[in-house]
């Protein structure tokens, strides 16, 4: 049980913090971008684009070109679009529908079921107004070594790094609590996946600049999960609770963000535990994982990217890569413990009693 939780915790970044990450990932695609004065607005306006505008021939062509669907895949994509025509929601656009049909291997009925489930979840939890209510993640997150590299992979797609092995996940949890961490992850997920005109943060303007320069839409990322330094000190029932919830939300409501997930420098203990934990993830997610060890990770990574794009902390002596500027001035690539004098938000402190009770319940349940 303890070994399995170690795997779950590491995958927090893949399917959970990945939301916090992958989304942060969209933060910046260029060093210098001219951002309109109102670009930081987070007001949601679900009626600013009609279904006809969202599904214009130009938008559909851009999405199909970006994904490079075959004629048969295009037909299934359009079939799904027809099946969803009764849904009058700004999420019903070519980019979102393409991610769902691709992630479900062009199984139209399954993709339709999951898409409708996503819409129902958004309405039930008032996700459409979340950006208005949230504001921005607390500054403490700049101690999370999760960042987008300046370089691209061989396909010309962005690379996102999550140094889970040196992440002080428990420190974040202690200061923020479950609800605050979930909100931060949801924030970056919304920024990442939304093309709604009403939600235009600086991150999205920079993403738009990247797309113009590269001449294609951003569809997916290569994600590197660096497990160097992973220890048993992060094994906490509360962290398992966090992973379980974020993994479920990521798989069901924000699918298809990663085209491959490379586990870098995976410890032997992790590899053993993975054989058990892998069964808790959908087949479509399992197929994206690639494992590397300390001995072979550079050879394997070279198949997908030039090694020079890696930071020195991951490729000592050879890595020249750096992170793109993000929501914070500079993410700490080296990770490490969060300073004790770094305060949490008052709302997080108010949740302390509730979180302690949750931790106690989970501890009791895990002992059964």
From TrEMBL:
Signal peptide: 1-30
Span list, region Disordered: 333-353
InterPro entries listed in its UniProt record: CRAL-TRIO_dom, CRAL-TRIO_dom_sf, CRAL/TRIO_N_dom_sf, SEC14/CRAL-TRIO_domain
Source domain of life: Eukaryota
Keyword Secreted: no
Name under which the protein is recorded: SEC14-like protein 5
Domain CRAL-TRIO: 136-312
A Gene Ontology term for the protein's cellular component: cytoplasm
Keywords of this entry: Signal
UniProt xrefs under Pfam families: CRAL_TRIO
Organism field: Seminavis robusta
